[in-house]
Write a structure and sequence with these properties.
two-stranded antiparallel ribbon; Pemi-like Protein 1, Chain: D; single chain; mainly beta
Protein backbone atom coordinates (compact mmCIF):
# COMPACT_ATOMS: atom_id res chain seq x y z
CA UNK A 1 0.00 0.00 0.00
CA UNK A 2 1.35 3.44 -0.91
CA UNK A 3 0.70 6.97 0.31
CA UNK A 4 0.11 10.00 -1.97
CA UNK A 5 1.19 13.48 -0.91
CA UNK A 6 0.24 16.83 -2.41
CA UNK A 7 1.35 20.19 -1.05
CA UNK A 8 -1.20 23.00 -1.24
CA UNK A 9 -0.85 26.66 -0.38
CA UNK A 10 -3.52 27.98 1.96
CA UNK A 11 -3.59 31.37 3.72
CA UNK A 12 0.15 31.96 4.10
CA UNK A 13 0.92 28.40 5.17
CA UNK A 14 1.76 25.19 3.42
CA UNK A 15 -0.58 22.27 4.01
CA UNK A 16 0.12 18.69 3.10
CA UNK A 17 -2.78 16.56 1.90
CA UNK A 18 -2.32 12.83 2.32
CA UNK A 19 -4.38 9.97 0.92
CA UNK A 20 -3.79 6.25 0.73
CA UNK A 21 -3.96 4.27 -2.48
CA UNK A 22 -2.94 0.85 -3.74
CA UNK A 23 -0.66 -0.31 -6.48
CA UNK A 24 -2.30 -2.66 -8.98
CA UNK A 25 -1.28 -4.55 -12.09
CA UNK A 26 -2.20 -3.09 -15.50
CA UNK A 27 -0.84 -5.29 -18.29
CA UNK A 28 2.88 -5.74 -17.61
CA UNK A 29 3.08 -2.53 -15.56
CA UNK A 30 2.19 -1.40 -12.09
CA UNK A 31 -0.43 1.35 -11.87
CA UNK A 32 -1.58 3.73 -9.15
CA UNK A 33 -5.06 5.19 -8.77
CA UNK A 34 -4.80 8.86 -7.82
CA UNK A 35 -7.62 9.70 -5.38
CA UNK A 36 -10.02 12.44 -6.53
CA UNK A 37 -9.13 14.79 -3.68
CA UNK A 38 -5.53 15.10 -4.88
CA UNK A 39 -6.00 14.41 -8.61
CA UNK A 40 -5.03 16.89 -11.34
CA UNK A 41 -7.92 18.93 -12.77
CA UNK A 42 -6.82 18.22 -16.35
CA UNK A 43 -6.72 14.53 -17.34
CA UNK A 44 -5.18 15.24 -20.75
CA UNK A 45 -1.64 15.92 -19.50
CA UNK A 46 1.60 14.00 -19.67
CA UNK A 47 3.29 13.20 -16.39
CA UNK A 48 6.93 12.55 -15.48
CA UNK A 49 7.61 9.80 -12.97
CA UNK A 50 10.89 9.49 -11.10
CA UNK A 51 12.06 7.18 -8.36
CA UNK A 52 14.69 7.70 -5.70
CA UNK A 53 14.89 4.74 -3.36
CA UNK A 54 11.37 4.01 -2.08
CA UNK A 55 10.00 7.44 -3.06
CA UNK A 56 8.15 7.78 -6.38
CA UNK A 57 7.38 11.33 -7.53
CA UNK A 58 4.75 12.16 -10.16
CA UNK A 59 4.60 15.66 -11.68
CA UNK A 60 3.41 17.34 -14.88
CA UNK A 61 5.91 16.79 -17.70
CA UNK A 62 8.06 19.71 -18.75
CA UNK A 63 8.57 20.58 -22.37
CA UNK A 64 11.82 19.34 -23.85
CA UNK A 65 14.44 21.84 -25.03
CA UNK A 66 13.71 20.71 -28.59
CA UNK A 67 10.02 21.67 -28.16
CA UNK A 68 10.97 25.08 -26.74
CA UNK A 69 13.35 25.80 -29.63
CA UNK A 70 10.66 24.77 -32.15
CA UNK A 71 8.15 27.11 -30.48
CA UNK A 72 10.66 29.98 -30.58
CA UNK A 73 11.32 29.38 -34.28
CA UNK A 74 7.59 29.60 -35.00
CA UNK A 75 7.38 33.07 -33.43
CA UNK A 76 7.37 36.04 -35.83
CA UNK A 77 10.71 37.70 -36.37
CA UNK A 78 11.06 41.31 -35.21
CA UNK A 79 10.95 43.95 -37.96
CA UNK A 80 14.39 45.25 -36.99
CA UNK A 81 17.22 44.27 -34.70
CA UNK A 82 18.42 46.92 -32.29
CA UNK A 83 22.15 47.52 -32.59
CA UNK A 84 24.04 48.19 -29.41
CA UNK A 85 27.40 49.74 -28.72
CA UNK A 86 30.05 47.27 -27.63
CA UNK A 87 30.67 47.01 -23.89
CA UNK A 88 34.22 47.55 -22.68
CA UNK A 89 35.09 44.74 -20.31
CA UNK A 90 38.24 45.20 -18.20
CA UNK A 91 40.86 42.49 -18.54
CA UNK A 92 41.22 40.16 -15.59
CA UNK A 93 44.53 39.75 -13.93
CA UNK A 94 45.77 36.20 -13.62
CA UNK A 95 47.97 36.04 -10.53
Amino acid sequence: MGVCYRATYNQSRLQLQMSRTRVFKSGNSQAVRIPAEIAYDNTDIELEISRMGDVITIMPARESLRDVVAALREMPKPPAVEKRDPIDVPLRRHD
